[in-house]
Each structure stands twice: as structure tokens, then as C-alpha cells.
Amino acid sequence: MDRIVCRVQYFHGLNRFFLFFKSLDINGLEFVDRKHLGAFIEYLQDDNLMASSINGYLRSLYAIFGFLAEKDVISSDIIKNKFRLKIPDLLPKAIDPDDIKLFLSVINTARERALILVLLRTGMRIGELLGTKIKKITIFLIYYFFLYPFLVSAEEYNGW
After folding, report:
1. Predicted TM-score of the model (pTM)
2. I need a labelling partner for 8 at 20 to 30 A (CA). Which of 89, 129, 146, 148 fits?
């Protein structure tokens, strides 16, 4: 089963590569060089693919290019100094509760504390919050602090 999946991934990578080259009017792999691979990477980035997905495409292409270089179909220069995108470090999904308490302890005004708590609890962006009317925040507070505890079980509520 793993070999089938691997072959499908190679095919998908090569197919996407050929579709890109068709748009450039290049008809054969023997004309491929490093600048074309760089353009292919930019093309994938323009499609908003993550770095790990682009690296997957590149791994598939380099495996195929290695085989073709052994058979002297393409130049072996293309597989030297392979392109690899650096995968960025992921941001933490949640802030430690102790850090939140420490952060809130240095905020002086109730307004600023309320703004920070709304940002933390809702996941809103600052621009969204600044454009929010007080009426909407009041509805949020009524729902989450008065209605929400009655709509979910005690385990889910966890004392918010």
C-alpha cells in the first residue's frame, strides 16, 4: 500500500510540474534547469501552499530527476544544491494561564483589561475589536457569562 501512495505522490508532483511547464511552453525535461525550479517554487507559493507541501513536491521531483540524471536524460547539475524551503516555527495555540494572569496584573485600567480579555476569549483581531460596537460586546458578555454555563455541561464550562 505504501508503494502505491508513494507513486501517486510522485505522479501528482510531476503532473503539477508539467502543468507549470506547459504554461511556459517548454516541452521536454531536457530543457529544465535550476531557474525553472525556482520559478516552479514561486508558482507553488503563489497558490498559497505551505512550505512543507512545496518541499514534498520538490522531494518527488528530485527523486525523478535523480533517476533521469543517471540515465543521462537531463543534466546532473539540477540535483546539486537542492532547493528546500525552511519550515517556520509554529506559534503556540494557547497562552499559559499563569502568563495571562501576569499580563493582566500589569494592566492599569478596567477598559484595557476588558479589551485584552475580549481579544483572548474570542480570538478577534485588534482591528476587528476596534471596529466593534459596545452593543455587540454586551451581547457577547451576556451570552458567555449568563447563558453559556446553562447550555453546556459542567465539565465543558469548567468555571471559565
Report:
1. 0.52
2. 89
